[in-house]
Each structure stands twice: as C-alpha cells, then as structure tokens.
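Board notes (copied after class):
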Amino acid sequence: MASPDVEGSKEFYCELFGWGVYDVTIPGLTDLSMFTLGDLGPEVLGMQPLADSAQYPSWLCYFRAGDLQTTGQAVADAGGQVLSDLIDVADLEQLAMFGDREGADFAVVQPRRLHGAAVIDEPSAVCWVELACRRPGQARMFYEQVFGWQAVERRFRDRPVTAWKAAGTWSQA
C-alpha cells in the first residue's frame, strides 16, 4: 500500500483490524512498514509513503515468481507493459512492476529474507483480490499466459467472476 499519511494509515488499520506494525529501515530507500496479524503475528501487508505528490494512494498486488526476467518477458509477450527495471530491496527481495493489457498495475516479487504475506484467508488478513476491467476476457488470457493460472468462470449476482487455480490451489480475482 502507498499512503500519503503513513502514521495516520498505521493508526487506522491497526485500530480497524487489530494489526500490529513494525518499520523496516532500508538504506537508500524509504522505510517500509509491515503490518502483522495481532501485535506479534505474521505479516499481512506492507506499506510505504507515496513516491511523490503525483502518485495516488493505492494498494498494489504482488505476485511471487521464480525468475523475474522470465516473467518480464512473459508480460511483454502477452501484451503487457514493463513499468520498472528489476529493483533490489536490500537483501529482502527483488521486484519489478508491470501493467496488464487492461492497464492494471501489479508487481512480481522474488523473495529473499522478506517472504511477503505470511497469512491469507484468515480473519483480518487478505482473503480476496479483485480486478475490475472493461475486457475481462483479455485480462483472463493475459494472466493465463503470464502465470499459467487456470481460469474458471463462476457467477456472482448474475455476473461472471473468474476464479483462478494456480499450482493446485484456488484463488479468486
């Protein structure tokens, strides 16, 4: 998450979800705040200040990948955009930013010491990531091609919703 008011966001989310928070100082980069489930629980979310005043407050999905250069090539081959070169976040992780065919930004990360969200699909943790776009069929083909996810269409309130099966497990988006 990118926030214009890091301290206010810490207070808001810790009160709302009962999260704890700690800061990681990264030489040469802005500090990273890590929210945890409870005071000492596993990590559920990372937050940093906005990069500059032109950036909007936002949430960004990070997907894990084995090789970022291969993933970057797959993004380009599938019609997406490469938005950043590889970024080394100290000894914590390496990441790159991309955009899909529909204009949605996302990041791909190769963990080192920081492994990302340590808990999902539990109370007060991330349980659903959703992409709303004009051409869902195009987005579906993009993510299938880039990540090898298997799309399964479901219905919710008489609208199609794509659920993803990745490496034998279900995710919904």
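Comment from the instructor: The chain has a mean pLDDT of 84. The helical segments are 6-17, 68-77, 136-147.
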